[in-house]
Amino acid sequence: MVEQQILITIATLAVTLAGFSGVVGIFTKELSANKSYKLETLLFQSGVALFASLITLIASQAGGGFVSEEDFRVFWVVSSCVYISITVLALIFPTIDIIKKERYKKLNYDILFYLSFFVVIALLVFNVLYIQDAYLFHIALVINLAYAFASFYTLVMPSKG
Question: How far apart are the first and last CA of the chain?
């Protein structure tokens, strides 16, 4: 099943990004507050993609296959709802941190972090309500990975200053 292969690939990429970022964090002598925050958001994004893809993969294996088109649609609706739940839960901790540190008073890196999550949630809600298929679910996972990759890129690049 192509959907399962995509989920395995996304989970592998998420773990790889998180692992490389951990190596960068360990070997960097002093991680600035900005780079530390980027590492944290990278881990959140790749963790969300990892858990959403693995939960869906395990559930697809436990079901033993889809008998009908209706079963297929219901599976992707439930998977999208689970992904929305994981995303909302993943947003709670950074939001608490942003409020405590009063970073909401200025526009910064947080906007992109939240925007990526809101786009993912919007895609998943649209999938639940209208499409009920795998491809929007996979696009949402790729958006999480794209953000994580962008964070990884900025994390490993030397600072300009």
Answer: 49
